[in-house]
Design brief:
single chain, mainly alpha, rod-shaped
Length: 123
């Protein structure tokens, strides 16, 4: 009787360790995602700040309307390229996080099935 109780305690301890490990992995995935997205957001802010400074500088240097419009057009093209690159990187970050979360969910599901006490009763 005591051996059976000890075996159950050992199983419960092992299950708890797996659950804690799984929760830590999820927290790690979410933390990495948050950090990466925050970095991307800061990059967007930097792009806009840099663009604003360029526009102010250019508007003070231009002598006529055509030059102002030309400079604005070039600025818009540059900003669009930078923002599209940021979007591409952000999409890659999200796709990587999706893959990691899918892998985590599959592993967690497998572990939950493995440690399910009802499965052991039917064995």
């Amino acid at each position: 009787m005591q051996e059976k109780f000890q075996a159950q305690l050992n199983e419960l301890n092992e299950f708890n360790q797996v659950a804690v490990s799984s929760a830590k992995r999820l927290a790690e995935i979410n933390g990495n995602l948050f950090s990466n997205l925050a970095r991307q957001q800061m990059d967007v802010i930097s792009i806009y700040m840099e663009t604003g400074m360029q526009q102010l500088q250019a508007s003070g240097e231009q002598k006529n309307l055509e030059d102002v419009i030309s400079t604005q057009s070039e600025t818009v093209k540059t900003v669009n390229k930078k923002l599209l690159n940021n979007l591409r990187v952000t999409t890659e970050i999200l796709a990587e996080a999706k893959d990691e979360l899918t892998e985590w969910a599959e592993e967690s599901g497998r572990q939950a099935t493995e440690y399910n006490p009802l499965n052991k009763l039917s064995a």
